[in-house]
Amino acid sequence: MAFALSPSALFSFLGSRVSSLTLNIIEAPTRHGDSPSKDLLGALLREQQATAVERFSRWHETEDCAPANEHLYRELIPLSLPGPGEQYAFEVDLDSCSGCKGCVVACHNQNGLEPDEVWRSVGLLHGGSSALPVIQHVTTACHHCLEPACLEGCPVDAYEKDPVTGIVRHLDDQCFGCQYCILKCPYDVPKYSHSKGIVRKCDMCHQRLAVGEAPACVQACPNHAIRIRVVNLQETADTAEANLFLPGAPEPRYTLPTTVYKTKKPLPANLLPADYFAAAPQSAHWPLVLMLIFTQMSVGAFVIEQLLADGLLFALGASPDFNATTRAVHLPAAFVLGMTGLAASVFHLGRPWLAYRAILGWRKSWISREALAFGAFAGLASLYAALPLSPFGLDLPDLWERRLGLAVSVSGIAGVACSVMVYASTRRPCWGGGYTGLKFGLSCVLLGIPVALLIEMAAAAWSQDAAQNDAVRQSVSRLCGWLVFASLVKLSAEGAVFAWLRSRQMTPFKRTALLLAGELAPTTMKRFLLGTMGGVVLPGVLWSYASSPFDPLSAMLAVVLILLTLLAGEILERQLFFTASVAPKMPGAPAG
Amino acid sequence: MSTAAKKESMWNAFPGLLHGLARQHDGSLTRDLVQNPGGFGLGQVPAKQTPDAVTSMVCGFCSTGCGLNIHLREGQAISLTPTVEYPVNVGMACPKGWESLAVLAADDRATQPLLRDERGRRQPVDWPTALATFTQRMRAVQERHGPHSTAFLSTGQIATEEMAYLGSLAKFGMGMLHGDGNTRQCMATSVVAYKQAFGFDAPPYTYDDFEQSDVIVLVGSNLCIAHPILWQRICRNKRQPKIVVIDPRKTETAMSATHHLPLKPKSDLTLFYGLAHLLIRESWTKPEYIAAHTNGFDEFREHVAAFTPQRVAAATGIDAETLLATARLIHEGERVSFWWTMGVNQSYEGVRAAQGLINLALMTGNIGRPGTGANSITGQCNAMGSRLFSNTTNLLGGRDFTNPEHRQRVAEVLSIDPGKIPDQPSWAYDQIIEGILKGKICGLWVVATNPAHSWINQNMVRDVLSRLEFLVVQDMYHSTETAVMADLLLPAAAWGEKEGTLINSERRFGLIKKVARAPGQALSDFSIFRLIAEEWGCGEMFRNWTEPEAVFQSMKELSRGQPCDITGIRDYLELDARGGVQWPCPDHAPEAEQQRRLFADGRFFHNDGKARFVFDPPAEMPEPPNARYPLLLLTGRGTAAQWHTQTRTAKSPVLRKLYPGGVYLEINPADARKYGVRPNQMVMVESQRGKLSAKAFVTHSVQPGQVFLPMHYEPVNRLTLAHFDPHSRQPSYKNCAVSVRPAEAHGG
Which domain holds residue B433? Predict the structure, then answer.
């Protein structure tokens, strides 16, 4: 350890310093290879890279012994397993939670989580009056609900509720990373890991409980504010029924959370979460945005085609040849759009190679049902779209062809309906079934019509037949009318949310409105601009042109413009659908 | 196996395979979270982090000084848990402690020396160049402006041995006169208060007193957030203590207290005098104790006679009834302890306020017994190391530079020429800053602290630092607000990458060990000091100090006969084995107990063995709220997951989740209405000196007329007013006038 310096070396070293001092010039220092401190430097750098604890380790040699802190948590975990009609639950003594957040970090460390992964969080409730202020920290993790929304929503059955302990466990290898549970859980519990491509969550340290040790958070709380207790299922359900969970928390009737928050202090009625007025944009989920938009565009295109072909919308005065030509383009185009959407959805998965598992949860998960419906749609649509292209002139009887077309439309509509339910069943108010249904349904119309318009226009331009042109003009003006009508309905429905800005209550809708008008305003503006251009102004112009014969080529350009603006507008609408949706959560900390 | 059977098993396997594709209960992802017994008394640990050895050391964040088990594999730290057997934290840790290994691995660790080139850019250089530059340019400054024109700023964040080396090297070796520590910002007030009252800077308590007390008075101390483990010790108190929190804010601690006195900011001194007045009026003092062990009580009685409940109520906002009830609590408690933290220390009259509490303890005989004391809770992990051994304000070992005998003694112990020891004390931090402004200090060496963030009236400080001819910063990160201003950055190894001792609030020496590799070319501060000593040419002076433990042995000798005598601690091994040792621990003393308090015999460190009542009339705050800046700004700790200027705590992704990422301002709803501030809105907070934008957190926890900003955010000290306690020179961070208005329309 000692680095003795030879006196002669030291003197020569000092001498060199003195000479440079007498010069008294600041310049780039020059070094001497034989500097004595160079040896020292090398030795110190080497020494720095070696850790040195061996000499102390004798104090800690006992390798096999009981946990040293066992006496600290013995009374904080139940002595026996839950009986029938019971399960384990967290109990939090709010009077003891002083807000240090040690539980969060202990959980992170003791479970070996990823660098930024946490399964527990601590929020803050505050209220009272200036004379009697109240602040209350709240530690929270998974509530191991009686009716876990994560489990219900999981398309791959990656959640299990332990029949004895009631612990809601996530099966990490079963998960394919769709993150739907994150949307489903009202308490913001499941956490997505980008590096692993799966979701993970609190498992109440079931491995520790199994050997009589307390969960990490229970062990780590300096004030013993967290414990594990056995709760009666019926009592838990009754408590949830009476909405006695925690002020500022999402209402418990949805999932019947088991965590017990207890306090001896009377909590004032005006307690609010510290982040109550904060509204942060959520993830945009781009693959889902594209999936929804393109599947809806595809379904819309198929249905419109069907309606046009059947003359249900209005009779086309075009020749059968002309119609056959448009179909031969229309159907494959619609099919390609649909497949684009479905392909996009795969990119949302953390582990896309397990996409086939999506249907496993069909009994309860709307994601599984959506996958089944769109699976059927894809199969039927591929057949249907192939018909006009068939090189062998595969000639299905008309009736069968119609039935096939009908099946495509029905399965597509079913798929879109499942999409609606995927979001409606999260119970986020801004994703309510009616509202979402209206949006998704009108997206089908708004995106389906321009496809039909474009193809007709192209065919008209191609054929250069005056009679066809007239028929197409008629059709165009009608379709434009429909487009304008649907756009106005959709834009007003979307704009209706801004009425909440005048509300004095911070409702979820108001949060959404604040986000749209605040942080997300640039996107909102673009969305409404594009929606109005593509859905109202341009179709209006085209419609007025269509009252007299027009040049199909320039009209076609207009339609391309309509299609692109509408598509962009709808994509932005769907982006805002996700980013401005306000997720319910447990009380959070102040926003900074 | 027959062919038929084989065929059959294949058929059976097929559904199994299908099942496996569909249902997967096990696999690499599941195994990632599997736990197994960790051994060493740890219980279950993640299997991927199973240790092959465990050692323990003390935490390097705050002065609580918790014990941490470091889980090792092949000599490298892989994880940690709080030590159960350690007498400080008994198996618990706060978020910072839990994450103290995580912050070592950061992208902005300084891994090689950085030297600013002619174009002002920082360029990596090798150590020899860095050392030569350091020496040549410091010497050049000294030659041009005199030997006292270079100074150093030390810290409460490095090991005691390193502080001793730095202080000795700078003053005895390099001829500097002025050096101070960032402990000026946290502990100076307590130091002076104790010195004047007790005769030595001696916090009298042991943490066990939290558990032994009947009445716990906490002043300007949000223990729940600033010292969660000390709050734990209060929670362990089985005597159902009355907890009195004296704080303008309704903090977590105030919430959990049995009594909260939300006094007006900076009226604490008046309050303590008012309580003393009532204790005397009601004959609730201990005359025998006062007579036997104190001086100056008669004058004190005269002084507080004027502090009638009416006057005090008017000044503090605490009504006379509550005042009397509080005095009664102090009277009726068998064991009453008084504790203070930054609310008292960081005040323009903090020394007198701390002494106001000391006076209350003395006059009621609440000192020297279990559960009593006038107790300063320290800030940084080694604030006390700095107080005793940094060789800044005090000569090594709590001595006096102006005392020739003291200089002689130190010279003997260190075998150096007494003439090398300055015969006058250093300038304080603020005087050094002022010295730079006046051109008297032209070279500054900043070690492990961040004045460009933390010093009061930040805009001025940055301007001042930029005027230096040569600024050297020695830090573990190259990105601190001060490091980026440096002409030369020396990359330092951190806690966990080096050895030494830290001294916690209750005077306990604890060991830190080398359990992780420092990144790149970073060297321990100790090694850097050795290299600079050699380069400067004074290596010979410190030839025995080849490792921290050698300095520790010198420290023992330096402490001999001092109140902080540690000659009874043999070496690091013994310190480790005993779970830390509190000073005093003199040689040949009987085996010391783990929890010891001072003054059990009523003998204080003044020559006559008596404590002194020290007092002064309260002063007005220099910048009260006014028409232009109508609100009073309080500052303080934000969350338990944040540490000071956040150079470390901002490096843990987990800690970052535990506090708001941006500045937030706590403001009362009444003021929010008055100034048109909506909850969560961005607001502009402005003082005479600067402004910042913050998100409004509208809450009743601050009183009307006051606002609160957490100190961890970089812009906060743009606003603060540079004023100081005249005795301790500690900055008064917690009172300046500001205005608040909504920022440009934004946010919800």
Answer: 114-184+382-546
